[in-house]
Description:
Distance between the termini: 54 Å
Helix content: 40-55%
Amino acid sequence: MALWHALSLAWWSQRGYLFPWVPVWLACGIGLYFGLKTEPQIFTYVIAVGLCLTCLFAIWLGGRAAAPVFWVLFLILLGALIAGARAHQLAEPVLGWRYYGPIEGRIVAMDRSASDAVRLTLDRVVLRDTSQKRTPERVRISLHSMAAEFDPKPGLTIATTGHLSPPSGPVEPGGFDFQRHAWFLELGAVGYTRNPVIILAPAERGQLLFKARVALADRVRAVLPGENGAFAAAIMTGDRSAIGQETLQSLRVSNLAHLLAISGLHMGLLTGFVFAALRYGFALIPWLALRFPVKKLAAVGAMIAAAGYLSLSGGSVATERAFIMVTVMLLAVLANRRALSLRAVALAATVILVLRPEALLGPGFQMSFAATTALVAAFAGLRDVKIRLGPTWVRGVATLVISSTVAGLATAPIAAAHFNQIAHYGLVANLLSVPLMGVLVMPMAVLSACLLPLGLDWIALHIMQLGLSWILGVAHWVSAQDGARGTVMRPDPHILPMIALGALFLVLWQGRLRFLGVVPAILAFMIWGQAERPYILISDNGALVGVMTDQGRALSAAKGAGFVASNWLENDGDAADQASAFIRWEDVAAPISAHKGKRAAAKVIGCEADEWLVFSVAPDREFPCHVIHPGTLRETGSLALFKDGDKLRALSAREVTGVRLWNTQ
């Protein structure tokens, strides 16, 4: 009874502070769905719906003390149901074989690949000898060689001859699951072409926003050539296709890459500028200021500007997330409520998780809400304890330093887990760059859009260029410093959830018990530090093998399978490139050998029982040892081998991902 009384008191002490937990429990249910090894059957969903109704009935009948428990169960089940419904809603055909032949389709998106090639996303796809029921709704192709000379435009119906294949699985067990990612992007196949691209039909009516976005990006790059124009186009329209790989790498190493993604910072700066400009502008008109609530009118104007920015920028998940967040805050202004509060953050997170539950798994969602939650909590804490930040002239600088430090600390574990790197001088780079984004770059971006109909946008763009040149200069300078980039080993999948739940308990719980949230976070970092990387890795087509040595992972090929190689090395926390890792292959003493191509396979005479032979093509005879080739890998996906005494224990990607909608098509 004493324990129950203590728990009841703990619940009652949280009254008025429980709403911010809603997205947390929804996220737990969504994570539960994505963590399943098998796709739930229809009767499982029926049972889950029944349990949800039971929880609601229990809340209606039960006492107040038990209500939070049933709400938690209800939200977890609801999150799982939402994620399952979303996954089934997006079900479209996925190519089940490797295809080479004619490809026809309409251009609906354009971007660049990691190899700096232009990529086109096509809908209305037509493939030779493939029925419409088996043809993917959308495919994405990279343009190489002669195809790279093609100048793509929105809405064109094109044709080429190229290669397509199903989206590939994780490059290693437990790694990033591109099959799942492609499923929620509605991509049924990816590939490339080296052949010329021809136009079958001009752009039709429609796709107005896509065409306007491309036209604005072209206009900006025409006024500001080079990297400055590419940067300006990226922050105004979301089109990063013209930014070079060297600049991208500098921005990543200096922790300034977030300035490219149209997210909370950009949306906040834009709406903040519009809100302030409208509010002070209305205040200068006495007749208007005395008769109407100019603050609320400014909020409505800022909301309209945010909606226009969302539409023009392509409506990516990150931009949608930022738009919802800003809209919630502006609605709070209209309702005379505090705009920046944990309730507002929780409401925005809840809306996004309901509309796009898959966003939970992406670094954008995690980093955005980690930073926002930490900032709101930090400044609320400073307000509650009445800590002054010094004289007025010091407060701006102090606020900037605190904001950058808090946001950096909140997002650092997430960035390290997803990107395997730490920007050691990221705080310095952000302190030198973010203020300029707020006082110069974004205001000039808004002004250039206003002046565009008059043909005077070049004035604002050239002023904007001053800020962009400074930011890019900072990025190149910081990234060139010794030790600017630190590498981190990939953590196990449960590490980030442990850190997140611990940090959220610390922020959201009221009372001294909140400090218990530090315990799971510390345990997570300790486990992360003891993480074990696979002794041997085998790619899902047998073309690449990696063996861990004292110098780092040795790779069986100096080139080819570059994406797989870079991911393995990054996950190891190894800064070496593929060519350097190949040099280590000479010193490999593991009982495994890699044989690429038919000639190499034909030269293999025999093997010992405990040996592992890896072929990139199916061998024409049997061997008395462990044999891995594309035929076996088709069922298992990539493989990881761990030392288990004197033997090697295999773990396949399929064992980790299970049998789900996105990998059984």
